[in-house]
Amino acid sequence: MTATDAQLQPRKKGLTRRQKRSLSRGVQYVVFVGVVVAFAVSADWGRLKNQFAQADIADQMFPDVITLALKNTVLYTLSGFVVGLVLGMVIALMRLSSVGPYRWFAGVYIEIFRGLPALLIFIFIGVAVPLAFPGTEIIGGTYGKVALALGLVAAAYMAETIRAGIQAVPKGQMEAARSLGFSPARAMVSIIIPQAFRIILPPLTNELVLLFKDSSLVLFLGVTLEERELSKYGRDLASTTANSTPILVAGLCYLLVTIPLGFVVRRMEAKAQEAVK
């Protein structure tokens, strides 16, 4: 075969890059479907239904699971969020302060309360505070203790979020406010902080979702029947009925709140990105 004949023969073509991507994606779909089918076939759905989906037990939970457990969970979450937001704002401003001791205190607070598990904070509020200050009662009883415990934890995260939001506001905004006669404090409150909150609203809403789940730790404070939140309510009924259906119903009630909140967070993040563009 001459060199000319070799040149005239068609070259073998491999898969293009697009074809390779399509093939890889197809293989991933097949593997995923295979895993789902294998799980569906191998699971004992009858036993799962008997343990987690007893309609008569679920019916017994209503309306208390909504009017009592879910209501308390929402109240605990909102009170903790308010305390955390106020305290987080103070810590963030201290972190940005030109006064050294303020910055050091804020830094130590953030590192400690971000590093400790929320469970230890609840135990500290429920056990250590009464021992350290005999006869002292936290305002609001259990609700006040939960608000303080959740707020202390949330404030450490919110402080860093707020600080980042304040620093994200262009420095020219402060300079413009000062040129108009605003004092530094008034410019911060009237100009900088409102703009910062528009930036940090999505992560703050995400923090609300996390607090909603952390409210389940209230059981370590010792609550009455009327103060139970979703997790405690579900566990108590599960022990009484020797069935896990109450736990599943409690979990679904969590999703009733967290899924819409997650959707709101994604919408706000999308709008924020559109505003930047």
From TrEMBL:
The keyword Zinc does not apply. It is a multi-pass membrane protein. The chain crosses the membrane at residues 26-43, 74-96, 108-132, 138-159, 180-201, 247-265. InterPro entries: AA_ABC_transptr_permease_3TM, ArtM/GltK/GlnP/TcyL/YhdX-like, MetI-like, MetI-like_sf. It comes from the Bacteria. Residues 70-265 form the ABC transmembrane type-1 domain. Keywords: Amino-acid transport, Cell membrane, Membrane, Transmembrane, Transmembrane helix, Transport. It is found in: Cell membrane. It holds the Pfam family BPD_transp_1. Belongs to the binding-protein-dependent transport system permease family. HisMQ subfamily. PANTHER family: GLUTAMINE TRANSPORT SYSTEM PERMEASE PROTEIN GLNP, MEMBRANE COMPONENT OF AMINO ACID ABC TRANSPORTER. This is Amino acid ABC transporter permease. It comes from Streptomyces doebereineriae.
